[in-house]
Amino acid sequence: MSLASVKRAYQVLATALHHGLDKLLPARLKPWWFSPLRACLFWLQDQHPDKPAAEKVKLAMQSLGAVHIKFGQMLSTRRDLLDDDWAEHLSQLQDQVPPFDSQLAIEAIEQQLGAGINSLFDEFDPKPLASASISQVHTAKLKHTEAPVVLKILRPNVEKSVKADIELMQSVAKLGQALLPDAHRLRLVEVVEDYRQTIMAELDLRLEAVNATKLRNNFIDSPALYIPRIYPEFSRERLLVMERINGIPVTDIPQLKAQGTNFKLLAERGVEVFFTQVFRDNFFHADMHPGNIFVSRETPEDPQYIGIDCGIVGQLSEEDKRYLAGNFLAFFNQDYKRIAQLYIRSGWVSSSTDIGAFEAAIEEVCRPLADKPLAEISFGQVLLDLFKTARRFDIVVQPQLVLLQKTLLYVEGLGRQLYPQLDLWATAKPFLEEWMKSQTGLKATADKLGERLPEFMEKLPEMPDLIYDNLKMGQNLLTQQKQLLARYLEYKRQQHKSYFLLAVSGVLVICASVLSIQEGTLGPAIALAVISGVFALWGWFSRPSSDKL
């Protein structure tokens, strides 16, 4: 552990003790030296004795800053690992960070660009438009086009502080994995590793630029979603320059009402955008919380979403997409056995799982919803409840599925906030059914063959040579197999001959022994013994050599 991690460890320890987190550790997990050590840190006392456990953890993470806040936010989506009360408290974590010195921002931007700000931009505003835990945003206009843009710059030394916190988390996770009896279910090391990959990706703004460009191209000319343009010529590892949008925050309901927004269509388009990203494009914005979503001020009767902050994206395998769509449709048809079977076939559930018990658990989750109208059912919550069965079954919850579940909860919650009567299934079911049809049947097979036809045509001239080579190879293999079989049969023949001769030798020895104890038969006994020796030598030298195999 580095010196920075040691210093950070003390800060984390002090914060934990100030929030009384040591009292949350069960007595059975406290070693003999825990109480004396705690007594030595007498100046670090619990300052929140009356608050519930989940609230204490939330406040501690909030005090520790960006990395721990984001980690708590990520944990709040892992309801397969946490109780509802803990998940609810952690979901309230707010990433509110004061801005850093604007002069430092200007110096960092110029260092990334290798040029002065005034040589590339006009009307640069030193006052930040927004400030978050990892970055800060300023506004300006491009020098030659006067196009309004925003400049997103990482905080000074943020990589160093993030790496120190991640290293500390990894050390604590490994220690917990070794000491906690429930560590297998909690998968502490895996959770920290998932988080490390996510937050390290956010520290390279070039990745966000690539993600945003891909999402923009996927929805180019779409009436449902607009992704601001990225200016790659000005974007760097620590700097992102993108088009400035003029939208209404999606949570500003009064302003949306004032401009006459069609809330029903807006809510339905949120569902449409989500399922299109997941199933059509297999590339979805995985951080669609309300702070990253705006609504265009243009055509409020035909509203369009604006999405920003594309640092976190998700993708599913083709198998995961099919199983996920099948799960949704099976739930719609109340086919709970089908849901269990899909979980098992997908590999999300261990092969050692008691299938009957798992099916019963699925039905336990879904049966109470059978009599409810679809408009009253939260499908994000259903998916979340299915993941929570990991507390009783060894379900392997894939990171990409956790991202998808979190995104679905955001989308569904936002849609019902905008339009409480939203029936997610009325919008999603036709889309899913059409997508499932596109994956099976003659048309789907023909389409897939059509996609690969250029590849087949490219390899067609090679086919005669490949066929000849394979036939020749097959003929050679057949000849080799015949030779091996002949050698094996010869080996077994010699082996049987040797065993037979040795067996005859043994019988003659027994006969010689019997004759030797009879009167007047010593001569025949000696003769049989000599003959037995001859057969023994013959059998011994008839043994097949192993190199003949």
From TrEMBL:
Gene Ontology BP annotations: ubiquinone biosynthetic process
Stretches that traverse the bilayer: 499-517, 523-541
This protein's UniProt keywords: ATP-binding, Cell inner membrane, Cell membrane, Kinase, Membrane, Nucleotide-binding, Transferase, Transmembrane, Transmembrane helix, Ubiquinone biosynthesis
GO molecular function terms attached to this record: ATP binding; kinase activity
InterPro entries: ABC1_dom, Kinase-like_dom_sf, UbiB, UbiB_bact, UbiB_kinase
Pfam families per the UniProt record, alphabetical: ABC1 (PF03109)
Pathway(s) per entry: Cofactor biosynthesis; ubiquinone biosynthesis [regulation]
Domain ABC1 atypical kinase-like intervals: 92-342
NCBIfam families xrefs: PRK04750.1, UbiB
Record family assignment: Belongs to the protein kinase superfamily. ADCK protein kinase family.
Protein name, as recorded: ABC1 atypical kinase-like domain-containing protein
Lineage: Bacteria, Pseudomonadati, Pseudomonadota, Gammaproteobacteria, Alteromonadales
